[in-house]
Each structure stands twice: as C-alpha cells, then as structure tokens.
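Review the following:
>
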Amino acid sequence: MRRSAVRVRNVALMEIKETIKQKAQQHFENVVAIRRHLHQNPELSKQEKKTSEYICSILDTIDGVEYKSNVGGYGIYGFVKSNKPSNKTIALRADMDALPIKETTKLPFASRKEGIMHACGHDAHCAILLETIKILSELRDEFEGQVMFIFQPSEEHYPGGAITMINDGIFKDVTPSAIFALHTTPEIESGKIGIKEGKYMASTDEIYIEVRGKGGHGATPDLNIDPIVATSHIVVALQTLVSRNANPTLPTTFSVGTFLAEGRTNIIPSKVYLECIIRTFDDNWRKQAHKLIHRISEETAQAFGATADVFIDHGYPYLYNNPKLTRATRNLAQEYLEEENVLDIDMRMTAEDFAYFAQKIPATYFRLGTKKENCEITNLHTSNFDIDENSMQDAIGLMTYLAIENLK
C-alpha cells in the first residue's frame, strides 16, 4: 500500500473511531438504563418472555430495523441494513437468560424476583447489543450490506438456545461471513478485553448414574447389597479418568456434583444417584472418555454385586475462535481501545453454547473486562455479582467498530 493510501486510510480510521466514540458516549445513559431494567426483571432459561418483549419494544423504536421474534423459544434475530446494498453480512449475538441465584448486592436496581438474578452479565450483553444496533442504524453510510443481530435465550440451560435457533432456521436464508460475541468478566479490569485464538472454552457433558443394590437394615449388611459402598468406589475410580487416562497435555476436568442416597442411620437404601460433568477440548478423547465412564461405573458396581445404569447427556461442543478472524479482531480492538487494553487470555474450562454458532460460521468470542474498583467480585454466578457499567460504553463502541470494519 502506498504512503498516500496509508495516510488516507489512517485519516478515515481516526474519523470513524472518533464518530463511534462520540456516539457511544451519547448512548451511555441509555445502555445503563436498559441494563438496570433487565437486571431488575430477570427471567430463567426458557422463560424469557417479558425480556424478549422488552427487547422487541426497543427494536420497534429503531428506524429500518427488521426482526423476527419467538425463534428457538423466546429468541430474536433481525438485521440492520446499510445504505450501500451488498451481499455482505456479519452477525452479533447476545444471550438473555438469568440464573436461579438469590441476589445479595443491595443495589437500588437489584432483582425484584426472589431467587432469580442476572449473575452472569447477560443483562449487560443485551443492553450492549441494543445500543450497538441503534448506533449502526445511525451510521448506515459507513458500511456495506447488513448486520445480523441475535438475542439468544437459554444459554444457561442445556440444550441451549443457540442450537434451537439454528434448528429454527435463522441461517437458512442468510449465512453471515462472521459472528461475534462478548462476555463480561470481573477477572479483567474495566476498559480492557481478553481474547484468544483457536480452542477457547470446553465441551461439556452431563453424566447421570443410578447404582442399584439391595436395601435393608443397616445392622444386617450381609443380607444386603450396599449401593453406597459400591457408588463410593465408583466415585473414586472415576477420578482416574483424568489422572490416568487423559493425555496430560489435553485439558480435562471431571467432577461429581450430586451423590444422593436416601437411607437413614439404620437403613441401607436400594439405590444411589450420581450427577457429574466432564469437560475437555478434543472430540476423539471425549468419545473415549464416555466409554470409560460406562465401563468404570458398570464394572465397579458389578464387583460389589450391584448394577449401574449410566446416561450421558451430550452437551455443548468446545468453542473454537477462528484464528484468522480472531487475529483481525484483535488488531481492530487494538485500534479502537489501544494496544495495552487488549489482553491475551488462556483457555477456560467453562462452557458456552455460542460454540454451536462457531461450528456454523467463523467466530470470535471475547471477554469484556468489568472489574469494579475496590470490589472483591472475582467470579461469575455469584450472589454479589455486579459490573463496572462504564465498561458498556467501551463495548458498544467496539462492537460497532468491529461490525463496520468487517463490512467495508
């Protein structure tokens, strides 16, 4: 590229960045108001009816925006079209559901619903995407083609809203060339983002095991087949799944979350229930691990005279950030936020059903730093979770910039 051309591009970049930053500032009060409304009115997975209606009521106020609701549940998708028609399309996604957690923040806009809380930042995700749509609608001359927006339900509950929206045909008529999503994190300072190419978040499967023996009086164990003892050995044996079977260079976690034996001090029950998870980053090892879980559980139970029925609910795939797209995204983020505010981050063992979108379309999923000053919040899904709302101004600006630069 000749110097004159480089100079022209740099001037154009400065101009569009400045325009977007100004608009992000102008929209800041709106994004805060939307986030707080959603925070006060959380809805669980598959129950996001009012959330969806509220989002639609805002979309109805934006000129020229087309959308369809009740897709894959309470999902919404639609388009912001530029004034420069072309076949180009990129997509932006936000998730909508809350969690069954009792809020303890004592914020003036705390949840009004007992035992339900936006403890994962999905309220902020929706607010950010709504204001991004508004800004893009004001900048239709700055890009070509269209931006597809997706408000996805039920991210927190398997099988998740991503796959149900895909099955409902959201990409049947239009397949975007790229899809982007962000997620809040209190692990990163506000004003920064974290990004990683390639494998980023783990696959997840849920394991349900019922161990059956022969119940009876606790004082006559010789007349019984004790499923508690058999299940205890199964739990211990399953810990070798990772330590003695997984490749040490391949991240894998296995955890038992429920061990339910409904006996009493003098009653040995006839059944015991286990609920577990396994997470990893390799589909071949994932299949092998499933076979080992069956074998270890069934044969260990058999050694004690019991039987084990194993059901593995095949969950989300691992999330893969397209390397070429993610490198380009990192470069654009450095242009918009400055280089020191774009961090390289590691793989995570948490799971995310955005992975289904990433299987269909080149994807980049990144972390938005929301850490509050003088605040001890260090994790998602906690009863005291909150965000630095200033981070949302950076987010709506960055998402707008990514959309425009990918549609030039």
